[in-house]
Amino acid sequence: MICGRYPGLKPGTLRSRASREKWATPRNISTKLIERTNHIAAAEMRGELTPGQADRQMTDIEKVAETIAEKQAAHKDVVHNIAKKALSKHRLPKIKSWRDAQIADNMGRKALGMDEDTPDAIINIGVLGGGAVVDDYAPTPEPQPVEV
After folding, report:
1. Looking at the predicted structure, is the pLDDT value of residue 101 above 50?
2. Is the CA virtual torsion 100, 105, 110, 111 positive or negative?
3. Rounded CA gap, 114 and 121, in Å?
4. Which of 7, 109, 124, 147 is disulfide-compatible with 114, CB 3.0–4.6 A?
5. Do residues 19 and 27 make contact, with C-beta atoms less than 8 angstroms apart?
6. Is residue 132 within 8 Å of residue 93, measured between CB atoms?
């Protein structure tokens, strides 16, 4: 979305800068929360924290994790609605290759929220908008014999 607001800004450039400047992203926030949880548990075992202090800190971490989960769910709903709206506006071209079929399947799965196990999925709505994708590189699959 940010790249759409600023012409010339490429997603790769944005990811590079985020990585270089250590911006907060869902992936590194999760990692940091896990590291913090392990640090608290280790400090409690070494006697640096009382059980009550450790419990309070763990409760704070759980609240942060819940907030992040809520924001991710809200973002997922926004992306779902954008994808659904974009797909309903466009009449996709006829499927001419296996690659076209795979792209259409992936778009439909993402629009319907079927790819739940990929939290960092990026949806490119305009892939088929300008015409069919020609797959010159993929060999045509051979028909498989059917045994009776």
Report:
1. yes
2. positive
3. 11
4. 109
5. no
6. yes
- Domain spans of the chain? 2-89, 93-148
Q: Helix, strand, coil % (nearest 5) of the chain?
A: 60, 0, 40
Region 129-140 average pLDDT: 46
Entry field: residues in the chain = 148
- Contact predicate 123/79, CB 8 Å: yes
74 pLDDT above the threshold of 80: yes
pTM of the model: 0.45
Percent of the chain scoring above 90 in pLDDT: 14
Residue 26: phi and psi, rounded to 5, are -55, -40
Distance CA 141, CA 78 (A): 38
Provide long-range contacts, Cβ within 8 A and 24+ apart, for 58-62. 61/33, 61/36, 61/37
